[in-house]
Amino acid sequence: MFNTILSGNHKPNNKIVNAVAVFLLGLMLALAFFSMKDDSSSMDELPHIPSGYSYITQRDMRLNPEHPPLLKDLAGLSVWLGSKVTNTPINFPSEVESWEKEVNGQWTFGRIFLYQSDNDADKIIFWGRLPMLLIMLILGWYIFIWAKELYGPKGGLIALFLYSFSPTFIAHGRYVTTDVGAAAAFFIAIYYMVKQLKEPSKINLALAGLTFGIAMLTKFSLVLLIPYFIFLAVVWGLLQKRLFKTILALTLVGLIGMALVYPVYLFHIWDYPLERQLSDTQYHFRDFAFPKMADPIIWMADKPILRPYGQFFLGLLMVIRRATGGNTTYFLGEVSNQGWYNYFPIVFLIKVPLVLLILASISLVLTAFQIKKPFWQKPIRRSKTWIKDHFTEFALISFFVLYWTSSISSNLNIGVRHVLPTFPILYLLISGQLSKWLDFKSAWKKILSLKDVSKGIRSAIFLGLKIYFKYLVIIALLIWYAFGVIRIYPYFLTYFNELAGGPENGYRYVTDSNLDWGQDLKRLASFVEENNIDKIYVDYFGGGWPEYYLGDKFEPWWDKRDYNEFPDQGWLAISATFLQGTRGQAAHGFDHQPGSYNWVEQYDLFTVVGNSIFVYNIKK
């Protein structure tokens, strides 16, 4: 079976290759599904799930407008269907102040909806997460399909293998957040856009337009597709000497996409009072640095026909403002909200499996050997020829460079998840080089063409040993890759590779969604129960609510609280994000005056729950 899969005959092996692909995706689904049951709400799920449910049941988008609604809709619809299937009514607290009066009171409303309205929070979170698993699988299938189209069955399976055992995709593919959905939308939209450029047709044009529209409804970072698609269209149009037709098709893609945005947003503001939308929009832009950008959106907010687009562009500008404003976080001993240029490169190097870095390095070396020498002769002509012959690879590399450039220059440094859309591109490029390296058909044909039989036999033996060595190396690396990820089950979010010293040492480098997103609160409650602890002081970061899981055993604590207030003997649990936030030094130009947890250093650390919550047994 292994030889059959790796052979170059595509058609006879499609069923076997597809079956292996389904098996890999099934393993990924199992790892994600069974590991999420004990994960409490991550930080972003606290507003996302209740917002999605409000969209479906209330047709009102006053909550969480800074993200497009599609992914939250899927979660909200699943929660609604789950309540019907299990015959479990869900109470919607429409009378609370965070819904009736607050502007975007998503955090307070989320807590009330999940934990203070007699709802079963765990069931709601479970049902909300199920559609995210489906999106994770859809992305995996497209990675497999595109890699197989480009590089054959080997390429398809290698790319899918790298994806299926990615700790970052498994971790975030289980949560109601925008990250994996955004990666899927980027990848699939690029797939159909490249297809439309290379093979223009009505169906490809329609698919490119629809997937672009879906991308705009997924996450606002996907507006990067607009300059990126323009760039691809201009390059391809010039190479093919049909620039006008290419730009015209691109314009149609944009119109189809934005036409799809309108009815979706129309549904979401259907019962959103017109005067409330206007006042909320005005409030969001009360201190906006670029009022001329905000004025047209405020003007659209109370125009019945234009309201949907007004709500769409409101969210877009809110994201732009947040990205420039940054988010306070810990990184390599410093705390800042202005970001670091080396943040994403370093976090990438310690958060992805070491094997992926090794395979990427092998691929770069193989690529270097394929460059024709001397490379300085006729570089422009040779570049044009390469782009024309390898336009798909050019498109993938261009996106990789664009997205990383945008991410590095951003002040929003809160997790490797923000560069997740570039991971599938890397899987494809690696699989392409490895599949070529493992291809022995061309070499075998050359041997068969030799007239000297003895030389042919010697060449065949040498080729066999060479191929055996290549496969041995790649198979060993892939086994290491899969084993290194599986062994961290179920703590996928806290994965750090060997360069960082593993997940136990990840907190020394970064926190927030790289390690501690609140996912271990239920595990802390289990720890308290198993150890018969009557009272525990907690400083918790995340989307859960300690009182819901710990009941009267919970006592709040925070870093600025006086150490002398702590009892002579007691338990203290601190989320890694808060703990490291007090240990880090303020970066240059950042005014950071947290409290201190230096006093806990004199006491032994009792345990670390799920690699993210530090528990101390304090005995003064």
Structure at a glance:
With 620 residues, this protein is mainly alpha-helical.
Give a structural overview.
A hairpin with a 2-residue loop joins β1 and β2 (334-336). The strands form two sheets. Strands 4-3-5-8-7 form a five-stranded mixed sheet. Strands 1-2-6 form a three-stranded mixed sheet, with helices on one face. By secondary structure, the chain is mainly alpha-helical. It has helices at 2-6, 10-36, 45-58, 70-85, 97-100, 106-115, 121-164, 167-172, 179-198, 202-216, 225-240, 243-268, 274-284, 291-300, 307-325, 343-351, 354-370, 379-389, 391-408, 423-437, 441-448, 453-486, 521-530, 546-550, 576-583, and strands at residues 329-331, 334-336, 536-539, 554-556, 569-575, 585-586, 605-609, 613-619. Among the domains are: 440-487, no CATH class; 503-619. It starts with a helix and ends with a strand. The protein is 61% helix and 5% strand.
What are the main properties of this structure?
single chain, 620 residues, mainly alpha, five-stranded mixed β-sheet, three-stranded mixed β-sheet, 8 strands, 61% helix, globular, disordered N terminus
Which residue ranges are poorly predicted, with pLDDT under 50 across at least 5 consecutive positions?
1-10
Count of helix runs = 25
Q: What strand order characterises the main sheet?
A: 4-3-5-8-7
Q: How much of the residues is beta strand, in percent?
A: 5-15%
Alpha carbon gyration radius: 26 Å
Broad structural category:
mainly alpha
Shape: globular
Q: Please tell me the overall pLDDT.
A: 92
Helix content: 55-70%
Query: Biggest β-sheet: count, sense, barrel?
Result: 5 strands, mixed
Find the count of extended strands (DSSP E, 2+ residues).
8
